[in-house]
Amino acid sequence: MKLLRALIWLLLPVLAQCEPITLTVGALSVVGGAVYYGLQCYFQECCFQNGAINSTALELDFDSNIFGQHLAKRVILKGVTGFMKNKHPKKPLTLSFHGWTGTGKNYISQLLARNIYGHGTESQFVHQFVATLHFPHASQIDKYKDQLQAWIKGNVSNCERSIFIFDEVDKMHPGLIDAIKPFLDYYEQLEGISYRKCIFIFLSNAGGEIISKLALDFWKNGKKREDINLFEVEHQLSLAAFNNKDSGFWHSGLIDKNLIDFFVPFLPLEFQHVKMCVRAELRQRGYEVDEEIVTKVAKEMTYFPKDENVFSVKGCKVVSTKLEYYL
Ligand SMILES: *[C@@H]1O[C@H](CO)[C@@H](O)[C@H](O)[C@H]1NC(C)=O
Ligand SMILES: CC(=O)N[C@H]1CO[C@H](CO)[C@@H](O)[C@@H]1O
C-alpha cells in the first residue's frame, strides 16, 4: 500500500497536466495493478511483509486441537502475536519446543504455520528440515552447513517473513545448528538481507525427562499441572539442551549467546488428555463422539511410570491409527 501511495503522489503532478483520456488510462492501470496484486495473492501466495496474525483464530485453533499444554499454548500465543505485531523486530523470533513424542510439538508448529500462511507447512514460505532426512551423515557436516546457509539466505531473500522449522534437533550433529547462528543474531542486515522478521522453530526431545519429572512430582503431591510455572522449567531446559551431548544444542552458541527467545515445555499427557485427542479426531473425521470408543482407545495406550500409569508413553501419537480399528 505504501508503494501505491508513493506512486500516486509521484504521478499526481504529471496527471494534472494530462488530458482526461490519459488520466483515465492512468487511473485504470493503477487500479488494474492493485487488482492484479490482490488476485495473485488469492491464487498463488504472497509473502506477508508486515503480516498480522488473527490471535483469536490462533487461540481457538490451539484450544480445539492441543490438549494438556497450558504453558506451551500461552507462551507461543503471546510470543508469536507480539512478534507479528512488531513492524521492526530487532531479531528473528526463535522458539525451542521440548518434550516427549506425541505431546503436540509438531502439531502446534503446523497450526502456527497455517495461521500465518494458509497453506501451512505446504506454503512456499514455510520450510521444514528434518535432521535424519536432510542431514543424515556426520561426515558431511561441512557440506550441510554451507547448504543450510545457502537455503536460508535464498529463502529469506524471497520472503522476509519466512518460517523455518527444524525437527529432531536432538538428532542433529553437534555444531551443525551453529551454522545458522548469524541469522538469529541482532544484525540489521547480512549481505543486504534482513532476517529480523523470520521465525525459527526447533523441535526436540531434549529435556523430556526433566519435564516428566516435574509433572510427576506435581501429580504425586496432588497439585494441579496447570500450576506448573514457566520459570520453573525454562532455565532447566536451556541447561539440559546445552549440556546434553545428544541434544543438537550441545555447547551451542545459540544458547550460549541467548539467541533462543523461548524454551517451551510440552508436558506428558494423561489419560484425560488422550481422551480429548480421541474426541477431536472423531469430530475432525465427521463422526459423533462416542464416549465408549473414546475410553476404549485411551485405554489401549501404554502409560508410565510402571506403577502409577499416569502419562501416555506416546502421548496422542498413535490415537488416529488406534481409532481406525473402531470405526
Ligand atoms: C479472527 O478470527 C475470529 C475467529 O475465527 C473471527 O471471528 C474474526 O472475524 C477474525 N478477525 C479478523 C479481523 O479477521
Ligand atoms: C531460493 C532458495 O534457496 N530456496 C531454498 C529454500 O529452502 C529449500 C529447503 O527447504 C531449498 O530446497 C530451496 O532451494
From TrEMBL:
> Where, subcellularly, is it found?
Endoplasmic reticulum lumen
Which terms in the GO cellular component ontology are assigned?
Answer: endoplasmic reticulum lumen; nuclear envelope
Q: Which annotated residues bind ATP?
A: G99, W100, T101, G102, T103, G104, K105, N106
- What Pfam family does this protein match (any one)? Torsin
- Any GO molecular function: ATP hydrolysis activity
Residue ranges of coiled coil: none
Indicate whether Oxidoreductase appears among the record's keywords: no
Q: Where is the Torsin-1A C-terminal domain?
A: 269-326
Protein name according to UniProt: Torsin
Species the sequence originates in: Xenopus tropicalis (Western clawed frog)
Tell me the name of the encoding gene: tor1a
